[in-house]
Amino acid sequence: MKILRAMIAGVLLAMSVSAQAATIEMDVNGLVCAFCAQGIEKKLRNFAATEDVAVSLEQRLVAVAMKPGQDIGDDELRKALTDAGYTVKAIRRVDESIDTVRARLKAAKP
Amino acid sequence: MHLSNGRRWMAALLCVCAVASTAQAKPIAFANGTTVMSEYGAGTMIEAQAFYAPYYWLSTGAGYLHLDSDVDGRTRNIEYVRVNYLVKRWNLDAAQANVFVWGSLGNASGSDFGGSRFARNAGFQLDYETRRIYSSLKSDLWESTAFSHRIDTLQLGLAPYEHDYQDIATWFVLQARSYTGEIHRGTEWALLLRLFKGGAWVEAGLTGDGKPQLMAMFNF
Question: How many CA atoms within 13 Å lie on the side-chain side of A74?
Answer without folding.
Answer: 9
